Fold this sequence. Notes:
Shape: globular
Mean pLDDT: 86
Oligomer: single chain
Strand content: 25-35%
Radius of gyration: 11 Å
Number of strands: 5
Low-confidence stretches: none
Amino acid sequence: MEGFKSIGRIPAQIQAKAALMLTCKRPRRLQSGCGDVIAVGYRYRLFRPCGASGYQLMTHERYNKLTVKKR
């Protein structure tokens, strides 16, 4: 798909939905300042880290590991 890179095994239906979301939704800036995110349903996220030019489509588990601060 154009505009993003899939990380892991993402179904084709979700990739098509992500491509649509990328064209019609504005990204939400994370409070931690580590990037922008677009929710693609309940289990998938389009994430663009700060300084990166493109989005990454990933599961919410992988997204949480990248963005949640370790205690």
